[in-house]
User: What shape does this take?
Amino acid sequence: MSPASEALILLAAVAALAAVGLWAAHIAKRADAERVRYAKRLAVLHEIDRGIIASDTPESIALAVLKPLRELLGVPRAIVNLFDHAKGEVEWLAAIGRTRTRVKGVRYPLALLGNLEAMRRGEPQVVDTEALPPSEHREALLASGVRWYMAVPMLAGGELIGALSFGGERREFPAEQLAVAHEAAAQLAIAVEQARLHEQVKRQAAELERRVRERTGELEVANRELEAFAYTVSHDLRAPVRQMDGFSRMLEKDYGARVDPEGRRLIGIIRDASRRMGSLIDDLLAFSLLGRRALQPEQVDMAALANEVWAELGANSPATAVIAALPAAHGDRALLRQVWSNLIANAIKYSARRPSALITVTGTREESELHYCVTDNGVGFDPRNGAKLFHVFSRLHAESDFPGSGVGLATVQRIVVRHGGRVWAEGQTDAGAKFHFSLPVHE
Assistant: This one.
C-alpha cells in the first residue's frame, strides 16, 4: 500500500471518530436537556404537593407553579380556570403572560373552553381563537398572541371543577407538552378541592364555635337566673316556715291539753310538714349556692375523706362498710366531702332494710381520669329511670318509704361537673345500686 493510500485511510478513520464524538456529544446534550425538563416537571408537581400539605390557598398554589409551568410548556400564556356551572361562567384563579400575572377577577363564558361533556370524560379541548364568536375575550386572546389554545380538564371526584388552559401561535401541542399539562391539571384539581374542603371545615368550625359561645352564654344567663330565683325563693320561704313551726309548737305546748287526740295529731302533721319544708329549703339554698361558691382546689386524700364521712354517718347504722384504697384527687375538699356524704348517706338509707346491709367504696386511676364508686345491696332502682336520678326533686321511691328532699344526687352531679368530671349510676330493682363519679387526673 502506498504512503498516499495510508494517509487517506488515516484521515477517514479520524473523520469517523470525530463524527462518533459529535454524535455522542449530541446524545449527551439531549439526555441532559431531558433530565432538566424532567426535573422541572417534578419541581412543578412538588410545589403543588407542598401547597396541599401546607393548606395554602388555591390562588397561592397556582401563582407559585404558573411561571415554571408556562416555561416548561413553552407557551406565552397559561391560566388556571375555575368553573361556575350554575352561572355558566369561568373565573380565572390565576393567569400568567410574558410580563405579568393576575389573580381572579376575570370571568367569561364556559363555551369558550370547548365541549364540556368531552371535558367531563377527561378529554382536552383544542380551540381555534379566530373561530370563536366576536367578543372582547376573543380580541384579548388574539392581542396576547394566542391563536390556538388547549384546555386540559381539572377533575376532582368525578366533578369537572376547572381547566388548565394554555396556548400560542401554533396549533400543534406535542405529546410531552400534553402529558405535563395533564399531570399539573390533576394535581391542581386536588389542591383546589382540598382547599375548598379545608375552607368548608374552617367555616363549619367557626359556625359551631359561634353557636357554642351563644349557647354557653344563654346557659350561663339561665343558670344565674335559676340560682338567683332558687336563692330568693328559699330565702323568702324560710320566715313563714319558721313561723308555722313556731306557732304550731306554741299551740301544742299551751293549748295541747284542751285539744282532742285528733287535733293533736293534726298539729303533729303540721309540725312534721314544716320541718320537712325547712329541710327542703335548706337543701335548695345549699344547691343554689354551689354555683356561686369559688372552688378552692388542693390535694385531697379521698380514702381518708370517705372514712371520715363513714365514721360520722355510719356510727348508728347496722350496715357494714368496706372502703378500699382510693387514689388521691385534686379538688375542693369541702365540696368533695359533700359528694361522699350524699353518696354514702344514700347507700345507708336504701340498704337499711337488708338484714346484712353492705356498702363498698372503691376507686381506680385510669388513663385520664380517677374513677370512684359507691356500691350497696339495697332496693336498687329501675334502670329505665336512671337518667332521672340526678335531677333536682326527682325521686324514684315514695317519701313514706324513704324520706328525703331529692336534691342530694343533683348536688353530687353539680359538684363533680364543676370539677370537670362526670357521674352515672347502675342498678336493678331489688338488686342494689352503684353510683359512679370521675374526676380528671391532675398532674
The two ends are 102 Å apart (CA to CA). The chain has a mean pLDDT of 80.
